[in-house]
């Protein structure tokens, strides 16, 4: 997220740079930049998971077309958890709440948030691999259920990770 913050911070127009010399205004600009960086990051994560959700939906169609109807409901659980995560991360308020409204962010809170943000990208890679495994297991009824369960677990973990991050950002966690 620090790369996002630096990118957004570096794009401050001359008017804002001038006003940054006004006492107290620099903190406002930094808070706004953190909000902007947070939004860019969440949009990036959401886009990755939208692609995964699309793949999961396509795999459901393939299950139906292959006559593997009994696995469609399990695959729907994965797709629903992915959609829940996407909806949560895209609809969260910009900068959520008090964490971005005050200059009192401490290093430990920022570190925790960065760890959650990194976890989103790691989870995205893991979900992609799990989808690959489901796809590879389509003709193998022995390994397909486990592949779908793994995908569902990872999708649910994404939702839980976002909820824990939200607790830190809103001041209700840790």
Task: Tell me what you see in this structure.
The chain has 174 residues and is mostly helical. It has one domain. 78% of the residues lie in helices and 0% in strands. The chain has helices spanning 2-9, 14-19, 25-65, 72-91, 98-101, 107-136, 144-170. Mean pLDDT is 82; it is low at 96-103.
Name its key features.
single chain; 174 residues; mainly alpha; 7 helices; elongated
How far the N terminus sits from the C terminus, by CA atoms, comes to 20 Å
> What is the general shape?
elongated
Number-wise, the strands total 0
User: What is the number of helices?
Assistant: 7
Structural class based on helices, strands and sheet pairing: mainly alpha
Could you give a short account of the major beta sheet?
none
How much strand content do the residues show?
Answer: under 5%
Name the poorly predicted regions. 96-103
Helix content: over 70%
SSE topology string: HHHHHHH
Question: Mean of residue pLDDT?
Answer: 82
């Amino acid at each position: 997220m620090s790369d996002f913050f630096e990118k957004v911070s570096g794009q401050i127009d001359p008017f804002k740079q001038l006003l940054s010399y006004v006492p107290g205004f620099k903190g406002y600009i930094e808070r706004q930049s953190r909000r902007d960086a947070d939004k860019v990051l969440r949009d990036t994560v959401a886009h990755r998971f939208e692609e995964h959700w699309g793949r999961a939906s396509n795999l459901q169609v393939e299950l139906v077309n292959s006559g593997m109807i009994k696995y469609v409901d399990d695959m729907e659980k994965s797709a629903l958890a992915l959609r829940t995560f996407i909806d949560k991360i895209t609809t969260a308020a910009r900068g959520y709440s008090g964490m971005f409204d005050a200059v009192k962010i401490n290093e430990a809170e920022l570190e925790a948030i960065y760890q959650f943000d990194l976890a989103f990208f790691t989870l995205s890679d893991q979900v992609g691999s799990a989808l690959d495994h489901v796809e590879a297991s389509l003709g193998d009824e022995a390994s397909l259920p486990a592949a779908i369960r793994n995908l569902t677990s990872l999708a649910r973990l994404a939702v839980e990770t976002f909820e824990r991050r939200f607790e830190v950002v809103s001041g209700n966690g840790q």
